[in-house]
């Protein structure tokens, strides 16, 4: 039997008792009407399962260079910048999606979530911020980090570049396989028991494919993980500037560390047979009352579902100032904590439940309906089962207003 690459990766990490010192995107899936994964997986650009590490990592600023971002730094690994027929091996195609679909991008936490607390206390509590930038201009040759990062905004033209989502790298559930030596932090064991029920689970960045991308085009997503070291313990999210300073000018970053990956999505007609039974939300045959509705089923096993909070909140780290929403940081009790004890106590660990109930205290087993009428950013809705919540918010830097409704089943 052939192990899936992610299993093999987890196994290798477990056997060696170590983890790679970085992350990159691994796989993509389409998200269905229950918040479940549907259809075959897709892959990142120039996916190479046998040598993913050396072949996939793009660290900025580079090791051994200056501890600062300079304008010449390229946005993506140069061997992955170009786009042609060699970009996708037939065995590892890009994901086919329709405009308005939700999709997941997977990556391994490699200890950066479950072992960061004790080993790397100077890292931010959200374990870094993930930015998803989209463009239908697929050749990224010569594009610099500064051309894209903190420059493409939520209201950007999709052909020129748009910020599609911001994510906390810690998605609230991912964890490595337990090493033979056990774990010090307690996060892995708690998640395995209470959320995932499996030995190891990949992290995911979920997002909505823009409605205005044209069938026949290819959406290129640049996945940016900003993971600097802070000069103090307990900082919620990295500051938003290339200078590592807060909005008020306070220096926060002691060492910059940022990784990027490139993932493409083939945009098909919303009614295309290739999508199987579940068509895109704008397909005319989809009944009006079913359009754009994700009836999120919280009873699905974690391995089979997306993350509700990510479907409801396109910008989990606020735009345009990139400050935190503490309620969307799974380990939020660690924010501002200067000297947490490990393993973490149950009050801190149990707070992670709230992330899965959108701020409520209930055990995450209810079925909620998330109606997304457009790409949205929202404030945290009240939790609880069967709550009728309408949330409206305006993306500060954008020209559109959006609505997300959670309604009674
Ligand atoms: C759930 O995920 C597992 C692991 O990927 C897979 O083997 C299984 O078929 C999935 N089940 C459903 C109902 O999708």
From TrEMBL:
Keyword Signal: yes
InterPro entries per the UniProt record, alphabetical: DUF7492
Domain of life: Eukaryota
Residue span, DUF7492 domain: 20-269
Pfam families the record matches: DUF7492
Secretion signal span: 1-21
Keywords, alphabetical: Signal
Protein's recorded name: DUF7492 domain-containing protein
UniProt organism field: Chaetomium thermophilum (strain DSM 1495 / CBS 144.50 / IMI 039719) (Thermochaetoides thermophila)
């Amino acid at each position: 039997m052939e192990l899936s690459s992610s299993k093999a990766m987890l196994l290798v990490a477990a056997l060696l008792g170590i983890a790679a010192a970085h992350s990159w995107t691994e796989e993509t899936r389409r998200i269905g009407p229950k918040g479940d994964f549907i259809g075959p997986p897709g892959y990142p650009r120039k996916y190479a399962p046998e040598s993913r590490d050396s072949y996939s990592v793009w660290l900025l600023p580079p090791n051994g260079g200056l501890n600062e971002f300079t304008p010449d730094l390229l946005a993506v690994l140069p061997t992955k910048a170009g786009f042609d027929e060699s970009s996708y091996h037939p065995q590892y195609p890009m994901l086919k999606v329709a405009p308005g679909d939700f999709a997941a991008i997977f990556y391994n936490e490699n200890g950066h979530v479950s072992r960061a607390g004790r080993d790397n206390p100077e890292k931010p509590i959200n374990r870094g911020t993930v930015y998803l930038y989209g463009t239908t201009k697929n050749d990224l040759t010569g594009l610099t980090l500064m051309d894209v990062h903190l420059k493409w905004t939520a209201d950007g033209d999709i052909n020129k570049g748009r910020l599609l989502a911001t994510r906390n790298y810690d998605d609230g559930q991912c964890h490595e396989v337990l090493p033979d030596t056990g774990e010090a932090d307690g996060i892995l064991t708690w998640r395995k028991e209470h959320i995932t029920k499996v030995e190891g689970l990949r992290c995911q960045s979920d997002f909505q494919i823009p409605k205005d991308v044209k069938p026949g085009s290819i959406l290129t997503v640049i996945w940016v993980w900003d993971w600097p070291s802070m000069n103090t313990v307990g900082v919620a999210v990295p500051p938003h500037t290339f200078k590592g300073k807060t909005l008020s000018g306070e220096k926060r970053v002691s060492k910059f560390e940022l990784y990027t990956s490139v993932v493409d999505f083939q945009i098909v007609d919303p009614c295309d047979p290739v999508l199987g039974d579940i068509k895109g939300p704008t397909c005319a045959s989809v009944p009006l009352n079913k359009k754009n509705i994700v009836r999120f089923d919280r009873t699905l096993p974690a391995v089979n579902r997306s993350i509700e909070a990510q479907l409801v909140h396109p910008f989990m780290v606020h735009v345009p100032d990139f400050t935190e929403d503490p309620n969307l940081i799974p380990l939020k009790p660690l924010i501002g904590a200067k000297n947490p004890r490990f393993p973490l106590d149950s009050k801190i660990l149990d707070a992670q439940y709230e992330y899965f109930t959108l701020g409520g205290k209930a055990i995450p087993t209810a079925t909620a309906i998330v109606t997304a009428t457009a790409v949205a950013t929202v404030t945290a809705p009240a939790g609880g089962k069967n709550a009728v919540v309408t949330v409206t918010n305006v993306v500060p830097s954008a020209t559109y207003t959006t609505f997300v409704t959670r309604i009674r089943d």
